[in-house]
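User: Structure with NAP, tokens only please.
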Amino acid sequence: MTATESPQQVVIIGSGPAGLTAAVYAARANLEPLLVEGVVEGGPTGGQLTLTTEVENYPGFADGIMGPELILQMRAQAERFGTRFVTEDVVKANLDQRPFTLETASGSTIETNALIVATGAKPRRLEIPGEDELWGAGVSACATCDGFFFRDKHVVVVGGGDSAMEEAMFLTKFASKVTVVHRRDALRASQIMQDRALANDKIEFVWNAIPIEVNGADGVVTSLTLKDTQTGEVSDLPADGLFLAIGHIPNTWLFDGTLDTDDEGYLIVDEPSTHTNVPGVFACGDVMDHNYRQAVTAAGTGCRAAIDAERWLASEGIG
Ligand code: NAP
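Assistant:
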């Protein structure tokens, strides 16, 4: 795409449940939305749901649905009502004047009257020695992607939330043993996920510990150095793989200095609306939600962002 002659009415950045739901609503409001979706391995990203397995808690799917399939369905629904897609990373956003301007990785520019930011969040890293060096060689943040490589091996999952429990349980399909290392002695995960993980014979727990180094030999992970968070004692835990499930960091770097963020880096919206501090820019999904972070709540905020954008455009006389 080259520079648009007349600005788009609304552009959505991000193709997870928030962005795609915003697209469905904006398309049905005749705003002809353009959705810019990031690229991974030559295809659209689809957000974190494409990295998960079965989604059991999205309403309407009594028997559950696979995460990637749910995203494909949402995308098809958005397309059916006229959403157009650009599969390219946005590398720059100028929100200083209207219409807003976005620059994509290929150097194209897109102008838009309203912008919906649905850029999601990315997995948090431990930032310890060995983590970067052994990334992809035993260290991962996606059991669904990499679990297969650990058949009959011992893997460690770090974290105590729902993601850690989900990753640990998924990994038991392949690994001979899964050890969950958690920095406290109580899990953060929901009760049902805790119960399932604690009842799984293949899962062991190491409480009150954090990895402080990933050790490897010949380019693969061999062990983790753990530190007891209570006593400071250091120990070595032999392991073939390390899966990180320690939360996420919102993807906001495009808007550094323009959109307001809270202490944890999430975009601030004027609750209960999705208006950011820049009129005409709306935020939805995990990039603005550090509280619920569910597919269904992301979809809900996507709906709100599209309705807010529609009303704002109308109030400006450009809808
Ligand atoms: P989370 O709930 O924020 O949990 C992150 C975990 O990592 C916490 O246990 C935290 O410890 C630990 N942690 C954070 N930083 C750490 C560090 N530097 N070193 C060691 N441990 C660290 O994140 P999440 O599990 O990714 O879940 C995010 C959201 O998605 C939640 O709302 C969750 O319910 C949802 N989710 C739902 C499902 C499902 O329903 N099937 C599946 C996955 C995720 P502390 O507990 O000590 O803070």
